[in-house]
Amino acid sequence: MSKGPSFAESHIVKVLGCVLEQVVNRNDKIPVQPEHMTIFHAYKPPAISAQDYLTRVNKYVNCSNECYVMALIYLDRLIQLNPNFMISSMNVHRLLITSIMLAAKFFDDVYYNNNFYARVGGVPLTELNALEIEFLFLVNFSLHIETDEYEKYRKQLTAHSDHITAKSESATNVVEIRSEIITP
User: Fold this and answer.
1) C-alpha closest to that of 143 among 65, 74, 79, 82
2) pLDDT at residue 22, rounded to an integer
């Protein structure tokens, strides 16, 4: 993992948000069994989308772009190690702030204390501390990421970024074509 610019970094938060929104939309259709509820689950979904929440976190936390890829890997590990765990609108926000905080602590040279992450994430400090401990146990304290695993996820996000960019450009082209048809 290098610390320099590596791929569509200006889009990483948008791409990760898009990926998580897709997961949330799919998983929200599946009822959660009471025995599968965790401390990450809210009583009701927050009013802010995962995409907007990520944008907010990114605005204040200033962690490296690698941290967002690492956070995704951590979330995937959590799911792989806990097959009944599903990311949904009820838990995505707490999972995001926790996984990003852990990635920043593990990888970045400079990171904030838990109190800062709690304020940015909109959760009480005591709750974030409990979320951090629970997350670490759920992933068996496995935060190290091999370079090949990191590159695999980075490439997948890059491919997803290319897809989003192509979709966006396609929509822009349609608008331009329509305006050419309408405007004499």
Assistant:
1) 74
2) 94
